[in-house]
Fold this protein.
Amino acid sequence: MTCFDLTIKNHIAHIVLNRPEKRNSMVREFWSELPDLIEDIDNNVRARVIVISSTGPHFTSGIDTSLFAEMSVSKKDDNLRYAQAMFYQEVKQLQRTFTVLENARLPVLVAVQGGCIGGGLDFITACDMRYATRDAFFTLFETNLAMTADVGTFPRLAKLIPEGFVKEMAYTGKRINAEEAYRFGLVNSLYETQEAMITNVMKIAQEIASKAPHAVFGCKATINYSRDHSTSDTLDYVALWNASHFKIDETLEAMGAIKNRRLGSFTDLAKKTLI
């Protein structure tokens, strides 16, 4: 892989952005490698939790500028309408890369150090939980480039932090430091160093991995559903979910594990198969 390293241990898949010399910019390969990785881990039940971290001074500098040239629409194009349609399709593909994170059955935790710029914000808002070092900063940078962010930030960020802060970030394109991100609720916790952050995020991941995978999947599915539906609809959804997925054997095993202070032995999610 061009952009990532992967290790899997103790039911945790650890994906690491591995181009620190290029500030982990999102080159063409990034947009296919990431969804392929996530879908492989999820579909083949290779782990119960996914942790994403990075290398170097910055988490990511965002979309590589070479992609802008590839996607640009010029009035000199012989067929402007065709060019615009191609641009639309390109953006939809970029959006899919991060939607895969949201649609994965597994929880996705992301650990951010240094800059999380432009497309990096789209990236982390599609994850389930976000953690950051105190030197981290976040920029909705597209406005500075005379662009409107379109890969996923707005529909997700506006559900994570107050709308006024989203608009301030979007209209000004300014940096938001880690303390502000924590105060807004964008990140769960702050850490002094990247090493301390990774250590603690892996502990959280291990705790999640020790739970019944079907129960954790049910939590993610229901929470995501609730963002776009009423309380009444979500209550009906979770009732139907449990009617379909509840397993008394799993509950009895969980109760026994708690009583005897041991780890539970739970059934993994089923592999996804192509029909």
